Amino acid sequence: MNHPFLMQRVHMDKSKMDALVAATHKARDARELGYREQALKLYPWICGRCQREFTRENLHELTVHHRDHNHDYNPPDGSNWELLCLYCHDNEHQRLLEAEQQASGASADGKDSTATHKPFAGLEALLKK
Prior knowledge:
Oligomer: single chain
């Protein structure tokens, strides 16, 4: 049975949660806008990896990469930032994930990534014939 008081309580909790999520997104967007705008003023609009140049028309494809991967560390001199295009930025984060996996000895599926196939194992015997 749906009691009116309980339904009102659920609605209030949902509206509080929606307000919290909205406030969190707004704060994140404001923080990102701040360091993005600073980085765009400090650095030329060129990808730090592929050297692709950007204009106002495609500037939305240029991102700010945090060198130490800490989005809360934003020194005003820009020393923790570099401008990367969307593709190079994704590649940089993928390389980080792969390096972490390699260091742990696991592949993406969680299995050991050590090679076991030895394609030239019998080559010496074949050459002696």
